[in-house]
Design a protein that fits this description.
The complex is a heterodimer of chains A (293) and B (279).
Chain A (H helix, E strand, L loop, with lengths): L3 H32 L17 H8 L1 H32 L6 H9 L6 H11 L5 H10 L9 H29 L3 H9 L4 H28 L4 H6 L11 H11 L3 H32 L4
Helix pairs in contact in A: 2-12, 3-7, 3-9, 3-11, 4-7, 7-9, 9-12, 11-12
Chain B lengths: L1 H37 L17 H8 L8 H33 L5 H13 L6 H10 L6 H5 L6 H12 L3 H9 L4 H12 L1 H16 L3 H5 L9 H7 L8 H33 L2
Helix pairs in contact in B: 1-13, 2-13, 3-7, 3-10, 3-12, 4-7, 7-10, 10-13
The chains are: A mainly alpha (293), B mainly alpha (279).
Amino acid sequence: MINKQNNKLGWLFASPYIIFGLVFFLGPLLWSLYLSFTNWDLIAPTYDFVGMDNFKKAMHAPGVQASFWVTYKFMMLFVPLVIVMSLGVALVIQGLPKFKSVYLIGFFLPYLSSGVVASLIVQGFLSYNSPVNEFLRKTFGLNIDWLGTPLSALFIVGLILAWKFTGYYALILTSGLESIDKEVYEAAAIDGVTQGQRFWKITLPLLYPALYTTLILAFGVTFGIFTEVYQLTGGGPNFATNTWQMEIFNQAFTNLQAGYASAIAIMASIVTFISIFVIRKLLESWGKRNGWV
Amino acid sequence: MVGSNKNRKSRLAVRYVLATILLLIMVYPYLYMVLNSFADWTQVDRQLIPSKFSFKSYEWLFTGGDVGIARPWMNAFFNSVIVSIASTVLMMLFGVMVAYALAKLNFRGRNAINNFVLFHMFFPAIILLIPNFLIIQKVGLYDTYWAMIIPKAVSLWAIFMYTNFFKAVPDAFIEAAKLDGASDFKILYKIMMPMSKSITAVIFLFLLMERWTELLWDMIVVRSDNMLTLNVLLSQMFGPYGSYPGPLYAASVLLTVPIIIMFAIFGKKFKEGMQFSLK
């Protein structure tokens, strides 16, 4: 029933979003596009239009190229790690007769942490005189600069993120597992299905919707990594952990290259948008090919 | 089937042991943080489990210690409280209002707004960082609480979640209330909100947690030492407090504990709400 009064009320109730969307989304979007064609430095009152120069410069900049690849490196590391960990947790605690929610809440706690705090703990834990490094030095004569070595720096940031998200994803997967009808398992047991077959042929297909949600969330995380990298490596060593956010932050607020940074932000958005789209399509076709959807 | 019951029991025992070990590994970083915040300063970051304890790290939270800034930690804590609560309350309020319009009010342009919300939600937000910073600067809000509150006053996710929840509420409730002469504000307040307590707990906790631990935005729109949030202050003190890690751990505890307390308070409602939101 659309009438005049409903129209007014509808717009009134929706007005907070409409104003917000115009001021902090649509306007900025256009402004960003405009800025990306200028050489503005965030301070000077005047600036020039430079056409596509910012984009051309960004294409060849080592920092930007690193951002592009680092995102996928984090993806290769973080996504399998967090899926294995959360699936492991979910399989262990699903259907426990007692204390299940105590475990679920316990595993969820890391999700409440601040990335700054997690970084601080990891930095302390891996500092030169820490028990771990002391042990490695005394026993194996190893002296590892954890955050100064490209591969281990990448791995440590991936591990912090996996630690943070495992409990949250385990919660999603547990409720997925528990929605599977017990009779299916009982019927399978009568047919003499092995544990391995049971997981691949029954659990995984029926878990697919929950797994899909988890995977989409996990892939999304890799495009927004900032805090841990900012805190622990600053994008180094030698751009090994330089994410898009890190690069944009550095160009805009350290080097004050607002125009150039806007161009990078637009490139980052396009890359993110396309990547997520492709990942979604791949995941969906993976499910369809196996007849899970 | 005689042996299978025993088998089942022992398999269950193995799962409990496994779950407990995994849980201990996952919460160990928190344990490490708490123990180090109470550790004697000769032992901070030197032992897996410290053996000598002191309150010196916490004393520094109140006095500022030798670093030269007086009482920055408690001040930052209150900044965090003000900003997080104001911002989260606004996100909830506007989320409920907009969602009610999108789910239950039939008005011209509703579909367009609905689609725009989805477009906005899935758009990579990084592109907005610089222009939003410039807007804050242009309207003279740089270095104020408002700079941290207004651009974080609307949550697309909250709108999305409430819209889905409200859509599941039968229209008959609303029509009956309207026949009794209730206004839409009253319906929202008296019918929709009481029905959505558990989903509200979930949305509130997620939003509060996210706002409380925000770094990038709060870092760029504020400059004065007395305006920083606790998370930003902690982030900036990595260097200056580099040789005093004890107080940094104490500040981390100060930053972590309130969220865990909130989680404990709303824990039960949260569990119910998660069940809906995961459907």
